[in-house]
Amino acid sequence: MTRTLRELFVDRTRQIDAFQKMMDGTSPRRIMVLTAGPGMGKSWLIHTFEQLAQARSLPLALFDFADGNAYDALTLMTKGRDLLGAGGFARLAQALVDAATPHVQVDVVGAPAPAPINLSSATVGGDVTISQGNTTITGNTFNIQTSDPLIRRAIEDRITSVFFECLADLSQQQRAVFLFDSYDRLSSDDDGWAASPVNRWVVGELLARMRDGRLPNVIAVLAGRRAPSFGVEWNDVLGRISLDALSDDDVRVYLRERRGLGVITDAEMLRLSQAIGGNPSVMGIVGDNLEQANGAKATADDQW
């Protein structure tokens, strides 16, 4: 029998209750920083949060930084637009078009300047001949480098501004949810925290607007083995929460009640619990193997 993630879940009621309060708006905290070691169920919990938000039909953007994709600020915004609903981000679409369309203004000494030139359908680089009235300019070479960091920053700033204008309008209608999994992947330092450009956008643009009250109806969860540090100025809106190891009772409930493995004796359960060591990932693997083995006993192999 197929069971939902929520039906299999054990423990973690403290974290789920906190997220429910964030969605309800009954907690002043709208940013959750969830940290735990490997295999402790961070992704499992993030997907449970996803299901809870979907059950309320809330606009939701889930980013998993372990998915193998390369992220930058522009990628976050375009993916966020698609996940939250492109219909609410029409102005962002226009801003992206404008950013991808180079324009050149030619100034002519002693003569009226030609109108701005739209190079979106022209070859950028090479000889260009421009004629307007009695003014002819030829042999000019234009070289627009969109890889220039200053140009790129100006484009990102404009698109970022429009993105958050759209998000503010969208979240006035209903609460919007951002979920970030494997957030520790945004640090290039395995021991401390070395902020990446993507982390600077998440914290400096998204979370800072939430902290400052410019996005009062947006909530966010950052989940990872490690997370950046936040100063006291974040205390009113940000809460930190961890994941403890599962207890022997949690393991028993999971295997016997959630997985239907009532055949496990108390002595076997004790040994299994000791082997699992409170790790949800290991517990899930044990449950899968035992359930499969139990099913194999009920259904013998075909004769060959």
Strand percentage: 5-15%
* Biggest sheet overview: 5 strands, parallel
CATH class of the largest domain: Alpha Beta
The rounded Rg comes to: 27 Å
User: How many structurally independent domains?
Assistant: 2
Q: How is the largest sheet built, in terms of strand order? A: 2-7-8-1-9
Q: Under the CATH scheme, which architecture of the largest domain would be assigned?
A: 3-Layer(aba) Sandwich
Poorly predicted parts: 119-145
Count the DSSP helices.
Answer: 10
Straight-line distance between termini? 28 Å
Reading the helices and strands in chain order gives HHEHEHHEEEEHEHEEHHH
What this model shows, in words?
The protein has two domains: 192 residues, P-loop containing nucleotide triphosphate hydrolases (Rossmann fold); 55 residues. The chain has 304 residues and is of the alpha/beta class. The protein has ten helices and nine strands. About 9% of the residues have low confidence. Helix 2 runs parallel beside helix 3, helix 4 packs parallel to helix 6 and helix 5 packs antiparallel against helix 6. The longest helix is centred in the middle third of the chain and has 25 residues. It is elongated. The strands form three sheets. It has a five-stranded parallel sheet, sandwiched between helices. A two-stranded antiparallel sheet has the order 3-4.
Please give the structural blueprint.
Elements: H1 5-8, H2 13-24, E1 31-35, H3 42-55, E2 60-64, H4 73-84, H5 90-99, E3 103-104, E4 117-118, E5 127-132, E6 135-141, H6 149-173, E7 176-181, H7 197-211, E8 218-224, E9 238-242, H8 248-258, H9 266-276, H10 280-298
Helix pairs in contact: 2-3, 4-6, 5-6
